[in-house]
Design brief:
The complex is a heterodimer. By secondary structure, chain A is an all-alpha fold. Chain A is built from 14 helices and no strands. In chain B, β11 and β12 form a beta hairpin. Helices cover about 35% and strands about 30% of the residues of chain B. Classes of the chains: A mainly alpha, B alpha/beta.
């Protein structure tokens, strides 16, 4: 009588295949077109330890693949963090951006950029900023004696996020207007244009360390969505688990913000899409959200680099796609939110 | 056999004591009703007995162990908590909600195993709602939802079950159904503690009552001995009558 079997497993299988195909397709698209078979051949040769160093390899391995892998990391991390925050706060409408975590991580990272730090240090700054913001939001909503109140939580996120936004503006004023300011501005809109293989390598472990505990503890995180008292009565050490979830989700968010800038909507929308596919149970929703998030970011980033003559900022694209899609999701699935 | 005992318990939040000197014993196979007007600390007492709030004084023992020394997991294996039936923010199916009752038996990184689903289904079967397993809890009636939460407590396999106003906001049919279920579970050997705003329910199903009143008054004992017209009038601050109908029922109403 396990209802797990076919449906969920099939969905995960299909999503995984879809993701791999998308990665390959994305690798063929660009100003320099590479036929799918050539991509596969180059990949095979590189994996076998050989392969040439022609134009195809240069474009594929130095430019396109790092960017595709970065998109996978960004989408997976933001979706996982969004799903985790939604379960933790028992609220399907929170996300790293609404809670101010993204902006906080953005502020930390911008300071890192201003100081000319390497990616690893920028990530650390981002993590500090994101964590500070989420703790401030929680303290604020607790101070107002309504930690369970959705409205207060979201308003606290907006207030603290606005503070972090002001901090970012201040950094912009201080930045060198010819060199740092354009970099910061463009980066804040979200972009993977400048991503290099080294950045991906620096981000991968941080995302893994952030997402792994969420995946391992996914059953208990789901129980947490029943509320503190119930979860504790069911045997969950709530305070400890909550700390792990906040640290993991914040680390995942902050580490991708450090390479991609602030990208909204993904953390809010993708968990909803996952819930529609595999149901509200967090232990199924989280892996689905990770796969969908990665696929979604590949599509968005491929659009960003090919749709127009200039690079379209990712934050602009996710908002254009995400806003209407979210309204549609809400209209279609009122049952996701209890009546 | 006493399975849960509170001795000289002081309850409250932080340094604010709500009530003190509370002693209470619950035996296997019995129903204890907790009665009291709003705001006297029924919920606080509940949470303290469940180990969700630390006692400000005194102690609680479960079996032969002190509650304070048990981990959350150990407590969950001994005491189950049935909250007032609510809808969750997420539309879980009934079986998914019930199988969460197995959490205390799963490893830190584990999810439910086939045996956990079997136990969850058995619990639903016991309550006669196995056919609801695949329904969403947001789309079943309040009474069915309450039964689903009780099923979760059964799946938890703890011998003590706390129920927070299990009949609140239920229609008459569901109220009768839930009360009958509670009585049947006690007959199976569970110790049940439930809070209610209906003294009549205590007459109907309880072996003992614990009455918490304003001004730190706390009385426990057999239902008929404790719930007299005089005591109830004093408790709720309005003149009340307790009448026995020819069929043997007790009715509480304005005097």
């Amino acid at each position: 009588m396990t209802r797990q079997p076919l449906r969920t497993t099939t969905v995960f299988g299909l999503l995984t295949i879809f993701l791999v195909v998308l990665m390959l397709v994305a690798a063929t698209i660009g100003p320099y077109r590479i036929p799918p078979l050539t991509v596969l051949k180059a990949l095979g040769e590189r994996l076998a330890g050989g392969g040439g160093n022609g134009a195809v390899e240069t474009v594929l391995f130095n430019i396109r693949l790092p960017r595709i892998v970065a998109a996978v990391l960004v989408g997976a991390a933001l979706a996982a963090a969004g799903a985790a925050f939604q379960s933790l706060f028992r609220n399907p409408l929170v996300s790293p951006d609404i809670l101010g975590v993204s902006t906080g991580a953005g502020l930390g990272a911008v300071v890192g950029i201003l100081l000319g730090m390497p990616v690893m240090v920028i990530q650390l700054f981002g993590f500090g900023g994101g964590l500070a913001i989420v703790l401030m939001v929680m303290a604020l909503s607790r101070m107002l004696r309504s930690s369970g109140d959705i409205l207060v939580l979201v308003l606290a996120g907006i207030v603290v996020g606005a503070l972090a936004g002001a901090g970012i503006s201040l950094v912009k004023v201080l930045a060198d207007p010819y060199d740092q300011l354009p970099a910061i501005t463009f980066w804040l809109l979200g972009s993977l244009a400048g991503v290099k293989g080294g950045d991906v390598m620096a981000t991968l472990p941080a995302v893994a360390v952030g997402v792994a505990p969420l995946l391992l503890l996914r059953w208990r995180i789901g129980v947490l969505s029943l509320g503190d008292d119930e979860a504790r009565a069911l045997g969950v050490e709530v305070a400890r688990l909550r700390a792990v979830v906040i640290a993991g989700a914040t680390l995942a968010t902050a580490s991708v913000v450090a390479i991609s800038g602030v990208i909204g909507w993904v953390g809010l929308m993708v968990p909803h899409m996952a819930r529609m596919m595999v149901g509200p149970r967090f232990d199924r929703q989280l892996p689905a959200a990770i796969l969908i998030g990665a696929a979604f970011m590949i599509v968005v980033d491929t659009l960003a680099r090919t749709a127009a003559a200039i690079e379209v900022p990712l934050g602009v694209l996710t908002a254009i796609i995400g806003g209407p899609m979210f309204v549609w999701l809400l209209a279609r699935s009122r049952r996701i939110v209890a009546p | 056999m006493t399975v849960l005992a509170a001795r000289q318990l002081a309850i409250g939040y932080g340094d604010k004591t709500v009530a003190s000197g509370l002693s209470l014993a619950c035996a296997a196979g019995t129903v204890t009703c907790l009665i009291g007007p709003n705001g006297v600390g029924k919920t606080t007492l509940f949470k303290t007995l469940l180990g969700l709030l630390p006692p400000l004084g005194g102690n609680v023992t479960v079996g032969d162990a002190a509650l304070a020394t048990l981990s959350r997991q150990d407590i969950a294996r001994r005491i189950a908590y049935v909250p007032q039936a609510h809808t969750t923010e997420f539309a879980y199916t009934v079986i998914d909600l019930v199988v969460m009752g197995r959490t205390a038996y799963l490893g830190a990184f584990g999810g439910p195993r086939p045996i956990d689903y079997d136990k969850a289904m058995a619990a639903l079967g016991t309550l006669g709602i196995a056919d609801l397993a695949a329904r969403e809890i947001t789309r079943i009636s309040g009474g069915q939802r309450q039964l689903a939460f009780i099923a979760r407590a059964l799946a938890q396999e703890s011998r003590i079950v706390f129920m927070d106003e299990p009949t609140a906001s239920l229609d008459l049919g569901n109220r009768v159904r839930v009360l009958r279920t509670v009585r049947a579970l006690a007959q199976e050997g569970l110790a049940i503690v439930l809070s209610t705003h209906e003294p009549e329910h205590a007459f109907e199903i309880a072996d003992h009552v614990a009455v918490l009143g304003h001004g730190n008054r706390f009385v426990t004992g057999a239902v008929k001995a404790v719930l007299t017209a005089e005591a109830l009038s004093g408790l709720y601050g309005v003149p009340l009558n307790v009448e026995r109908t020819p069929s043997g029922r007790y009715v509480v109403g304005p005097a």
